[in-house]
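Notes to self after the call with IL:
- keep both proteins in one doc
- input above output, always
- annotate only the second one for now

Protein 1:
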Amino acid sequence: MLNGLWLSFFIVAAVAALGQWLVGGNAGVFAAMVESLFAMAKLSVEVMVLLFGTLTLWLGFLRIAEKAGLVDVLARLLGPLFARLMPDVPRGHPSLGLVTLSFTANGLGLDNAATPIGLKAMKSLQELNPSSTDASNAQILFMVMNASSFVLLPVSIFMYRAQAGATDPALVFLPILLANAISSFSALLAVAFMQRLKLTDPVVLAWFGGAALLLGTFMAVLAGLSATALTALSSLLGNLTLFGLILSFVLMGAIRRVPVYESFIEGAKEGFEVARNLLPYLVAMLCAVGVLRASGALDALLAGIRWCVEGLGWDSRFVDALPTGLVKPFSGSAARAMLIETMQSKGVDSFPALVAATMQGSTETTFYVLAVYFGSVGIQRARHAVGCALFADFVGVVASIGVCYWFFG
């Protein structure tokens, strides 16, 4: 799927460029496309410079949290909830612990830990699946919630904004938090509707009712603030949360007698390797997006969408952010490239760039997650998994637009 998406970028760009040359008489479009290739390759390396430092730093602190037992504590805390959301899984089955660990790791931003744990959880759930080709209800819930996983701290987006020159990289913290919460809750509701889950169970009500109450109260407080105050609060909470988490990791590690310095170095080495391995993918996608933009194809698509939006009498500033949301279900690297390109072309703190950053933080690579998780156990029929996950992505895009108009409009 990723091969087809990447190839289609170049084919569409070639067709659009030929149209500009043969119909519009613009022979300079080919020079612009070649120039964009080299410019995007250079930008990829510049992004990687920050990636090396940021991933090394963050994964170093996260390794301390892992060794201090923070993930295990959260797993035990969330275990009773997932036991009720997956009624077909026997109480005490090892898969429930793995599922909880996977969600916990995702919430903390431990992507490298979340994926292998998630694959183990999917394999464990397959042991209970009566079919070797059809996804079970428990597997679907696990996959859909993974595809819309709630992330407490979107460090990677802060990192890209910092690389693009943002004076306050954490400015989008609250918008992402709110849009992400709405997207994740919609994913749960979609699966619950399809599987007839009993969301009225006291434990489920306690968890999600409490979360909804907190979120509703929080939004009610935010509703009374001006746009300037909202922006300032988002910045304060984003930076405070980031530093608070780091401090809590270190202090918990010290209390648990974890060798914090050695653990940090161990995790930092992993971060260096992860950043290095990302460079080829970043170059590939940024160059493809750059060619698509230089050919005029992307601008033509956005112009058509903008014409429709303005015809309805709506504000069209969000349209320039849509490429990030449109490609995110297919490819995280392509969406990341779209986000970086939007920040470069429109300005890192422009309204489209802020919306694109929020979309990036509240949607997921649905088809990638589905292919990896279901493919690992030979599942061929996903049933309602794709529809529920794409619904959550759609809600995430719409919520991102609405939240950003609230905060920055």
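Protein 2 (the one to annotate):
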Amino acid sequence: MLNGIWLSFFIAAFAASLWQWLVGGDSEVFARLVASLFDMARVSVDIILVLLGTMTLWLGFLSIAEKAGMIRLLGRALDPLFSRLMPEVPRGHPAMGLISMNFAANILGLDNAATPIGIKAMHSLQTLNPSRDTASNAQILFLVLNTSSLTLLPVTIFMYRAQQGAAEPTLVFLPILLATSASSFAGLIAVALVQRIRLFQPVVLCYLVAAALALGLLITTLAGLSSQALAAASTLIGNLALFNIVMLFLLVGALRGVKVYDAFIEGAKEGVSFTVTLLPYLIAMLVAIGVLRASGVLDAGLNGVRWLIESIGWDTRFVDALPTAFIKPLSGSGARAMMIETMDTFGVDSFPGLLAATLQGSTETTFYVLAVYFGAVGISRIRHGLGCALLADAAGIIMAIGVCYWFFG
């Protein structure tokens, strides 16, 4: 399936470019396509260089956690839930602890920590996969939940809004929280339906109800804070949680007799090898996305949506923020650029500006996550993984639009 998707990007870009050249008289379109190939290849290397340091650092710390038995301990805590959502993963398997840590990092908005942990978890799940090039049910569920981007502390969104001069940078906190929760819930439901996972089991319901209550309590608590207090709390919680995790690994490892330095070096070496294997997959996906953008296919889609909404007679203010939504599944940096461009054009606290920020925080860069996580373990047959992930994206986008009309309309 991934082969067909990748090829379709190039075919769509080529067809659109031919049309612009032969009908529109744009003789520079193919120069833009070629330039995008090399630009995206360079961007891929830049991303890998950043990932190299991050992966080396975090896999070093994860090695200490593994040797100290902390991964197994986390796995046991979620065994009752994931043994039902991922029945092919044995109880107490190291993958459960890694999955737990990945979700915790994502929830806290610690993207740099979440990615290497997630790749490690995917490698662990791959050891249970009977077909080396085909995604297992557990790997698909893990991927979809990652692409749905359940984040409680979107600190980076607050930072960009503050840089653009927002009066209250954290104004989008609750809209983002509601939108990303809808995305994650939709992704879980979609995978459960395809894989015939029974979500109404008592144990699963206990976990989901507990999570919903915790989310409601957090929203109730934070909703009473001022924007300045909320921004300060978000930053403090994120940084404190990150460094506390590091210290916990080191202290527990030392108390249990782990040679923490040697364990760190062992894991760091593994991080280097992991990162190098990602480069071909990342280049392949990003160059395909690059030519799709350079050909104008995405702009044409946006104009089509605007025409359709106008013909129905609906309010079209949300269309000005849709470039962020369209590009987010394809390119995180591209969506970030679109969000900032929307803020510059319409105002950081305008409806399109607020919606663009909410859209940026509601979902993850689906194709990037797919390329990195599946590419790290050599999976090319992704089965229903992409469809469920895009459905989660769509749910997040729709919820973001609805919530922004509710909060800011």
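Annotation: The mean pLDDT is 84. The longest helix spans residues 29-67.
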